[in-house]
Amino acid sequence: MSHHKLEIRDLHFSYPDGHKAVDGISISVGHGESVGIIGANGAGKSTLLMLLMGIIFPDKGEIIVGDVPVNKKTLPFIRQRVGMVFQDPEDQLFMPTVYDDVAFGPRNYKLDEKDVEKRVLYALDLVGITHLKDRAPFKLSGGEKRAAAIATVLSMTPDILVMDEPTSALDHRSRKKIMGILKGFEHTKIITSHDLDMLMDICKRIVIIKDGKVLADGLAVDILTDSRLLDSCGLEVPLSLQNCPKCGMAKNSEK
Ligand SMILES: Nc1ncnc2c1ncn2[C@@H]1O[C@H](COP(=O)(O)OP(=O)(O)OP(=O)(O)O)[C@@H](O)[C@H]1O
Ligand SMILES: [Mg+2]
Hints:
- By secondary structure, the chain is an alpha/beta fold.
- It has a single domain (about 1-255), classed as Rossmann fold (3-Layer(aba) Sandwich).
- The chain is about 30% helix and about 25% strand.
- The protein has helices at about 45-50, 75-80, 100-110, 115-125, 140-155, 170-185, 195-200, 220-225, 225-230; strands at about 5-15, 20-30, 35-40, 60-65, 70, 80-85, 160-165, 190, 205-210, 215-220.
- The strands form two sheets. The chain has a six-stranded mixed sheet with strand order 6-7-8-3-9-10, sandwiched between helices. A four-stranded antiparallel sheet has the order 2-1-4-5, covered by helices on one side.
- It is globular and about 55 Å long.
- It binds adenosine-5'-triphosphate and magnesium ion (MG).
- It comes from Pseudobacteroides cellulosolvens ATCC 35603 = DSM 2933.
- It holds the Pfam family ABC_tran.
């Protein structure tokens, strides 16, 4: 299962205006790990994910998926193995129907229409939106669009799922639903988010990015309870772990 492994080695990237967004990041992610990437606004999280997907390319350093380095030549393979759900689902949905959007990837890989249909129905079922298959994506609610965007990636049966802020702007029910989908994905997951409660629930490991560098990398239970560390990069302990605002009682002593 080496193709589920991801190796990021001494990655550097500056935008064309000279702004250095990624400044020497190294992270190694093993098969089946779920890793949350956190950091203040502008820390470099989305830039890192775009480098992972080969949407942009590093100035220095390398990314290796399984045994394959990410570069222009290997992109078709990388895009098949690594699926990214963008922060804004509208960046991912552009066909007349949800079905066509979810079929887009498999059709692009020239699968025959029977296999395409199997993949589409499998992905729609996984995210629980089979009933929306003939609807126009732009007419869906925010949560439905997010689920459809995830289905467009799952129809490619990726080994590694990369998600940028999967629960942002979702109501409680949609957020829980998306969390259920993420938990159900058993392969490698890399998720950036400001929703630390969600990450606490889904990711065993957390990496903190600050000013384009890795500030901490360790177990979620250690990092997400370290208020001093989180505070130093503009974050706070997940609400579910904070003391009661009324009586100050610690959450874990409530029972
Ligand atoms: N196209 C661009 N040109 C120049 N600088 C950019 C560009 N896109 C992003 N940046 C800068 O790169 C840095 C990292 O941005 P990035 O979007 O990766 O941060 P982020 O950690 O994802 O933040 P957020 O939590 O707000 O999503 C920021 O300082 C940002 O201003
Ligand atoms: Mg971002």
